[in-house]
Each structure stands twice: as C-alpha cells, then as structure tokens.
Amino acid sequence: MALVGFFILAVLLYCIFIGHKVWNQQVVLTKNFELCMEKAPFMKIFKVPRPEKVLSVEDLETYFDEFDNIFNSTGLPPIWDGEKLVPWKQFHKESIKVAKQCHEELGIDKPQKQLRDTFSKPAWDPNSTIWKNSKNI
Prior knowledge:
Helix content is 61%, strand content 3%. The protein has 6 helices and 2 strands, in the order αααββααα.
C-alpha cells in the first residue's frame, strides 16, 4: 500500500513539475512576443486621445450610429484611430503582419497554446479563422 501511495505522489510531483515548466515557458515566450510587438502599428493607439475628449456631443451621436453600422456589418467593434472609426480587421491588418513576423522570429507555431493572456486569443493568431480569408497577411 505504501508503494502505491509513493507512486501516486511521484506521478503528482512529476505532473506539477512539468506543468510549472510549461507555464514558465509560456510566460517567457509571451514577454518576448510583447517586446517584439512594440513595433506594431496598433501600439500607437494608446497615444491617441479618446473620441469623447475631442468630439462634440453631436459628433458622438453620429459616431454611435456609425459604430453600430460597422459592428453589425463586421461582427467586431470598430477602433477610433484618432480621426474616424475604422473596422477592427482593417485597423489591425498591419499589426497582424507584425504578429506573424514575431511568431516566425520566436518559433511560435501555435500561439493560442504557446502564449498567455491577450496575445493567446485568436485575434492575434494570423492562422485563426478571423484572419483566414484576409489577403496579404
């Protein structure tokens, strides 16, 4: 009986060790990917004033309608680029090219499994169904 308990404990410790190792690899790879993505065009959006800071109330009402139209036609929320609302895929098209280059540089072939947090989402996987039908990626 003690031998069975020892075996179960050994298997459990092995699984914990492997899980911790995989977790650490994901964390390191994600940090490297984030550094690589610093050159992506979407990073500039954080320096653009929010629309409610630069538009009048009347303009905002117009943009709410435009937001709804873009969202209903694409299924994705548009992005404010500092001047106008842009469909999500159009806005991120250049950034996904950077993501693809970063994947190649870092040897990432399954980003949804190899990365963590935001960059593990299908939106940042150039091979996901979101980008599958897009040209020039």
